[in-house]
Specification:
Pfam families: PP2C_2 (PF13672). This is Protein phosphatase. Keywords: Membrane, Transmembrane, Transmembrane helix. It comes from Hydrobacter penzbergensis. The chain crosses the membrane at residues 257-274. The chain has 7 helices and 12 strands. It is of the alpha+beta class. The protein folds into 2 domains: 2-247, Phosphatase 2c, domain 1, CATH 3.60.40.10; 252-280. Strands 1-11-10-6-7 form a 5-stranded antiparallel sheet. Strands 2-3-4-5-9 form a 5-stranded antiparallel sheet, with helices on one face. A two-stranded antiparallel ribbon has the order 8-12. Strand 4 and strand 5 (113-119) form a beta hairpin. The longest helix is centred in the C-terminal third of the chain and has 31 residues, at 249-279. The chain is globular, with a radius of gyration of 31 Å.
Amino acid sequence: MNIRAFTLNEIGGRKNLEDAILPKRYLPQDIPLFIVCDGVGGSSFGEVASDIATRCYYNILATAVVDSEQAFKNKLDEALASFQQQVHDYILTHPAAATTSTTLALLLFSQHNAYIAWCGDSKIYQLRNGISIYKSKDHSLVATLVAQGVITEKEALMHPQRNVITRSLSTHTHPSDITYTVLSDIREDDWFLLCTDGLMEQFTEDHFATILFPYNPFSNYSEVIDALCRNNTKDNYSMYLLHINSLKKKVAAKSRLFPVLLLLLLIAGAWYAYQRSSGNRHTQISSPMKPDTSKSIMMTHPQKKEAVQQDSVAKQPGKPH
């Protein structure tokens, strides 16, 4: 799978940066694993939780063999336990960080599937032709109200409690608090977006069609989206925006190579058969000077050989999170 990745991890209108992403920069030879976290407000240690979360989940998933939904869940549980232990150790020396927590948005590509997991209101989208064909469901108060039909999605955008989330990663998080699934319908030219809620203040779903479709291989989408958010976003804003350039690059190369190898083998076989046939022919040469004593001389042609050589937490407006 050939992926082009664009990143943002910006402070926005906050006093400190509590968002975290890993890897900091994606290279083609890297494991296709992407994590975005948003430290939750209510304490000054949101950046601690988001940093620990990105490192724990990355370290465990990057070395894992994920070939099924169950294998994915097992590694998520292992990463959560590691995160909770490290946060617990931090709290022992920093008691004021007792309530620290973070959101999570994670995506791992494995065997042409997208394994995704999230907790809180950091979002994961799959986009095709400028349209969202998959969107994670926030663990938030307004998302619950929308699901119950109490408010509309449009009303949720301006709801006074839109910053209240119902789940996050902390020392009290249960494995079942993390939602996960596997997306198998992935096509060339699809986009995947993992982002914190701050990005969506300015880069809304209405921009998907106008900015991301059609795909421009010469465009730096990090700069394009940052231009929308910079000096306009009150929150930190972070993202991993991923474009699927090719799904079968290695397979296609092999499929092109096979006919060439077959042709070389056929040519080598034909040449060998020709040489063998020629070697069995005898040519008699008579001397014109001595017709009575002519001798037959056996001549053969020499044979040639050829060889063919991858509980709700309030994210308070205006306060760090």
